[in-house]
Amino acid sequence: DVKVTQSSRYLVKRTGEKVFLECVQDMDHENMFWYRQDPGLGLRLIYFSYDVKMKEKGDIPEGYSVSREKKERFSLILESASTNQTSMYLCASSRPGGETQYFGPGTRLLVL
Amino acid sequence: GENVEQHPSTLSVQEGDSAVIKCTYSDSASNYFPWYKQELGKGPQLIIDIRSNVGEKKDQRIAVTLNKTAKHFSLHITETQPEDSAVYFCAAILNTGGFKTIFGAGTRLFVKA
User: According to the 3-state scheme, what is the secondary structure of chain A?
Assistant: First the structure.
């Protein structure tokens, strides 16, 4: 059964802190994604990766970076957290050329 | 680029009634349209999809229709049940490698028992 896990369900951080969100998938998928989910805005793509050490910017990459050192793991980094980054963060994975994305349960981040 | 609009943002129905959620897309080259359901505390999960060469697809109580000319597609849920209560997202994909999925803003469906 397909499984995407995220390191934390809830996270509280202070403005200016460096924040790491981890995502692990066990399906041997090449593609991995980070989205941000806000009410009324749907899911917005932050970054995606189609291979180890490869990354591409999505629609809202500002203030974020990513790391993919291993195929199964995709990390989202907030270099200096700000209050406008308070949101739900969703990780997803898919096969190469696969249209179906498999999502993790999400991390709800609060930046004070 | 592609843009997907979804309506309504909130929908409340009585158990047993039907629910319809509508989406429109802007890029006529989009060719794959999935629907995701997000239950409380979980990530979105694919429930049904349709390709641009098909007008309608059905899976038990849920169905999706696509009108390519008008560039809109809809999700239909019949005989709604309380467990259908969730947030539903439509999406459009331009399949040039499957990387870019554009999601609608979501519809929160309440099914009242």
Answer: CCCEEECCCEEEECCCCCEEEEEEECCCCCEEEEEEEECCCEEEEEEEECCCCCCEECCCCCCEEEEEEECCEEEEEECCCCHHHCEEEEEEEECCCCCCCEECCCEEEEEC
